[in-house]
Amino acid sequence: MASSTDPATLRRAILALADSRGPAKTFCPSEVARQLDDDWRPLMAPIRACSRELVREGCLRVLQRGGGAVAGRALAWGDPAAGDGPSRWVTTLGVSVAPASA
After folding, report:
1. What pLDDT, in 10s, does the model give residues 31-87?
2. Which three-class secondary structure state does DSSP give residue 64?
């Protein structure tokens, strides 16, 4: 079984939650961590690091301060891996991000 910090496991977990919410609903990165482990806090940095790739690929948008997609300024904001304050994540509109197979 893959470790909960394995990048592929994290990617699948982020994309599965994003896809289950759909393009109109956001989620907190901690929701991903909580699904993976009861001791979820240590997973936050690796989850944010994985989200950086998903933002670059256009699969994920990061929202902060009640709106405004951060994806366009993700590198300036301190990418999602930096963890600069609370954020909500959402799948890119019109794109299904569910993995083809688990």
Report:
1. 999 999 999 999 999 998 888 888 888 888 887 765 555 444 443 344 444 445 667
2. strand
- What is the rounded CA–CA span in Å between residue 12 and residue 52? 14
Distance separating alpha carbons of residues 70 and 64, to the nearest angstrom: 7
**All domains of the chain, ordered by start, with CATH?**
7-91 (1.10.10.10)
Joined together, the tokens standing for residue 23 give: 């393009």
| Cα radius of gyration (the chain) | 12
Q: Contact, 62 vs 28, CB < 8 A?
A: no
Residue 40: in which H helix or E strand, if any? Answer: none
